[in-house]
């Protein structure tokens, strides 16, 4: 089993000595995340047009208990994304920002969806292409890759695979019209390598999200998000925030359970509360 460590962000102007502020680096293994405002993973309900223009919506997202307890291989908690017909809900991270698109090898993730059979969370990767365009969204959808998205059951997805006659599940609304036969259009999804070639090796990643919305009302849950960059996979496991209340909680290994903030050792934990 890979080593598990916690990843969060310290939301203060200056990090205290001994407290870990999560950095942008990716490291192979499994990382426990607590998505929240100010952290490396966070919620957004903003819809972005292909010009990059943002439109606020009222989708919701939060860390919740796993639906059907015991059914999620990742543990007791997952990230919920819920929308009505015209809303968006996104679990986002900036950890890939600035990396070459060509270094992104693929993504794996687990989902559980209810309310809209045939649809579920997709992967969105926004990029700054090598050419004149400065904003493009690349989308991977399981149904575009030839897979059936079931209602009310956990399913595992791998963006490097496809089924039937599909060449892959990657497409972009920037290739118009949607009915175009160009690989990477809505009608003609393809693999990621084809889109890398289409937009150029110099394209860089500007955002990454697990996305729900614009198809209809639904509630979805996601966990076990594995991102492979340069051949190394980091898997993100969603868990609720753990906040200690005082220096007495630092004892007997309690310091290591804290996620907001994260401490290097027991001494750093005790010092944190002594300063308050």
Key words describing this protein structure:
mainly beta; single chain; 276 residues; disordered N terminus; six-stranded antiparallel sheet; eight-stranded mixed sheet; 2 helices; globular
What does this structure look like?
With 276 residues, the protein is mainly β. It has two helices and 18 strands. It starts with a strand and ends with a helix. 38% of the residues are buried.
Describe the global form: globular
The multimeric state of the shown protein is: single chain
SS element count, helices: 2
- State the helical fraction: under 10%
Strand proportion: 35-45%
Judged by helices, strands and strand pairing, the structural class is mainly beta
Q: What's the number of extended β-strand segments?
A: 18
The biggest sheet, with number of strands, parallel, antiparallel or mixed sense and barrel status, is: 8 strands, mixed
Order of helices and strands: EEEEEEEEEEEEEEHEEEEH
What's the alpha carbon Rg, rounded to whole Å?
Answer: 20 Å
- Average the pLDDT over all residues and give the rounded result: 87
Distance between the termini: 38 Å
Low-confidence stretches: 1-24
């Amino acid at each position: 089993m890979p080593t598990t460590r916690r990843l969060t962000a310290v939301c203060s102007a200056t990090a205290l000595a001994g407290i870990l502020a999560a950095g942008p680096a990716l490291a192979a293994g499994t990382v426990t995340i607590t998505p929240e405002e100010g952290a490396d993973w966070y919620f957004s309900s903003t819809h972005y047009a292909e010009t990059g223009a943002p439109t606020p919506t009222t989708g919701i997202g939060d860390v919740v208990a796993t639906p059907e307890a015991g059914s999620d291989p990742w543990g007791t908690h997952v990230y919920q994304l819920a929308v009505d017909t015209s809303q968006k809900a996104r679990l986002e991270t900036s950890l890939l920002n600035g990396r070459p698109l060509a270094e992104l090898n693929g993504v794996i993730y687990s989902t559980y969806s209810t309310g809209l059979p045939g649809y579920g969370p997709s992967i969105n990767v926004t990029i700054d292409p090598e050419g004149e365009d400065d904003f493009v969204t690349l989308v991977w959808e399981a149904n575009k890759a030839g897979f059936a998205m079931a209602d009310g059951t956990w399913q595992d997805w791998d963006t490097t695979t496809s089924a039937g006659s599909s060449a892959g599940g990657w497409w972009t609304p920037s290739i118009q019209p949607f009915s175009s036969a160009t690989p990477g259009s809505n009608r003609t999804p393809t693999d990621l390598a084809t889109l890398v070639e289409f937009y150029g090796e110099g394209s860089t990643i500007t955002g990454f999200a697990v996305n729900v919305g614009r198809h209809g009302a639904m509630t979805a849950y996601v966990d076990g998000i594995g991102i492979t960059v340069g051949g190394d996979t980091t898997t993100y496991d969603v868990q609720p925030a753990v906040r200690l209340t005082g220096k007495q909680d630092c004892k007997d290994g309690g310091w290591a359970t804290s996620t907001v903030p994260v401490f290097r050792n027991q001494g750093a934990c005790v010092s944190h509360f002594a300063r308050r």
